[in-house]
Amino acid sequence: xxxxxxxxxxxxxxxxxxxxxxxxxxxxxxxxxxxxxxxxxxxxxxxxxxxxxxxxxxxxxxxxxxxxxxxxxxxxxxxxxxxxxxxxxxxxxxxxxxxxxxxxxxxxxxxxxxxxxxxxxxxxxxxxxxxxxxxxxxxxxxxxxxxxxxxxxxxxxxxxxxxxxxxxxxxxxx
Length: 174
Known about the structure:
Elements: H1 2-8, H2 11-31, H3 36-53, H4 64-96, H5 109-121, H6 125-136, H7 141-148, H8 152-169
């Protein structure tokens, strides 16, 4: 089917391919922990990429299902990276609160990311897990408490202590 799509843009072959693979890709993503709505979106993007890149498919290197699953996996990784960058910027905003900017102390985004990651490794395991869930994975405080089976007050205390620690470690970034 992919060969027919690559050769002549065969819409019927693509429709059959879509009908066959879209639910499988969605299921694969959901088994990996992707929420249903996002899995549906990634499945559609995956098959759109198959339509666009059909000429790149090489059946001697992989079978169609492996190739399609790899595209889906890569799209999911790209989305996770974008989400992590977005959440890291939220951490920066929290760290920067109530601190005047110092233009001469500006670091590139990559340097700043590396410094934040290094500072996070200095947190206790408990603090790190709370920060990771709350800021990098976007959990609410209540969801963090449920996920770690700890009281909500403990989540808030660990976050406060972790952010205080990060602020002191990253003072020169502000």
